[in-house]
Every structure is written in structure tokens, then in C-alpha cells.
Amino acid sequence: MSLLLSIVMPAYNEEECIHEVVENWVDLLNRQFPTESTRLIVINDGSKDRTGAILDSLKPKYPNKLEVVHTPNGGHGNAVVRGYRHAVALGSEYVFQTDSDDQFITDDFSKLWAKRHESNFILGYRQIRFDAPARLVITRILKYSLFLIYGTYIKDSNIPFRLINGIYLKKLLEQLPDPTPFAPNIFLAVMARKAGEKTFDIPIVHKERQTGTVSILKWKLLKVCMQSFQELVEFRLALGSKVKALKTVHVTQPVKL
Questions:
Q1: SS3 per residue for the chain
Q2: 40-73: per-residue pLDDT in tens?
């Protein structure tokens, strides 16, 4: 099997919005790629509410577009990587990742898709970010930590709105530390940037969260921030060999018509 595009979406306790979010993204696939093989892969990360049941109820409605993978709760990072590996195993030419909390709009996908021939790794960034003040402060700390540790500046390194060439993603995943870091998307962004990818600055809309609750708050948020910082410091020593391996990847971009 081979696919033009897979959308990877982790989900945890999003019963209030998951139905609408899934329908919005499947609708985008049907509108933009009516004759192409595409998938929305939702990783249900051990949700304790009705998220899993709602996803299962949607599968018969979209038998050729929606795949649901149920896993024990392992955290957002593990769910994202599991989704990436699933998309790569399906032979996806491109892999797009977003979240299931209804804070992004599907219209912004086209901004990244339009750049797919120019870069193997494309990041959006949240122009105005609607998150709790503590999360905004810690995000800023991590952003400057990346500059301090790696000498690289990325506006929004952990954003769940990214488009990656499937072959390139496969190689990135091979370079990812084991066990999976708390925030693997940061590591992927750093490796891609250091390997020469530069399309990291596409502005997108970030909406205020209307449903559910953020799963990491207050002191737990500070704890995982410190964990991420430590993981990034430890990864610094291995970065050179990882980047060297990425530079051996030769992706043949389709000719633009």
C-alpha cells in the first residue's frame, strides 16, 4: 500500500470535540484529494472518556479515510511517534501532524502543502498563541534553551502543525532517541534544522480551547519542562552523527506541474 498523504492525530479525552475535528479533517482530505489515497490516522492514547467509542462509531462512515489505533496511555509524545511510524509503514509520501483539541483550522493546511516541493520538513508557527500563561512562559524558556544548547532558533519547535516528506520522516525516526523523549517533535525539528531544512516560519491560526482540559498543568508542567531540557542537553552529544545520517537521505521531489 502507498498513500499520498497521511494525517497523524493523537487524541486523549476529547469527547466534546473529537467528532467535529475528525469530520473537518476527513472533509479536507475528500475536498483536496478526491482521487488520491489519503488517511486520517487517529491514535487514541488510552482516553478515559468516550473518545474511543466516538472514534469507533465514525469508522464505518469513513471506511477508506479513517484509521483508529487504540493504545494504553503513554503520553502525547509516544502517541505522535506511534502515529508517525504507522504512517511510514503505510508508505505515505507525505505525513502531516496535528492535534485533536480543535485549536487549529484545516484551511491553514494548504499553506504548508504549497511548500511541499521546497522542503522535506515544514513547520507552521502560532502567530498568536492561546494557552495558559504558565505554558506560554515555559514554551519561551524551551525556545531559548534550544538556542543555548544547539545554537539554533526555531519559532515554534513543538507545534503540532507540520508536514514532513515520508522518506525523510522515516530517517528522522531512526535517529530519534530511545526511549522516546517527552516532546519528540522538538527533537525532529532540531535535527531537520541542523540538517539544512529551513521552512519553519509559516504563520497559522491558533484558536482558544473551547472544550476539554489541558492534561499537563502547574507543577507537572514545570517538571516535564525540566525533563525536556535534560533530554535536550543529553542529545547534544549525539546530534552530529544524527545530522550526518540525515544528510545522506536523497529525496526525489516530484516535478511541479
A1: CCEEEEEEEEECCCCCCHHHHHHHHHHHHHHHCCCCCEEEEEEEECCCCCHHHHHHHHHHHCCCCEEEEEECCCCHHHHHHHHHHHHHHCCEEEEEEECCCCCCCHHHHHHHHCCCCCCCEEEEEECCCCCCHHHHHHHHHHHHHHHHHHCCCCCCCCCCEEEEEHHHHHHHHHHCCCCCCCCHHHHHHHHHHHCCCCCCCEEECCCCCCCCCCCCCHHHHHHHHHHHHHHHHHHHCCHHHHHHHHCCCCCCCCCCC
A2: 999 999 999 999 999 999 999 999 999 999 999 9
The pLDDT assigned to 214 comes to 54
Report cis status (omega within 30 of 0) of the bond before 63.
Answer: no
Q: pLDDT tens digits, residue range 197-209?
A: 999 989 999 998 7
In sequence order, the 6+-apart residues with CB closer than 8 A to the CB of 237 are none
C-alpha cell at 153: 532558533
Joined grid coordinates for residue 145 = 534553551
C-alpha to C-alpha distance for 31 and 27, rounded to whole angstroms:
6
The total of other beta-carbon atoms located within 10 Å of residue 179's CB is: 9
Q: In the chain, which stretches have pLDDT less than 70? A: 1, 130-138, 210-219, 221, 252-257
pTM of the shown model: 0.91
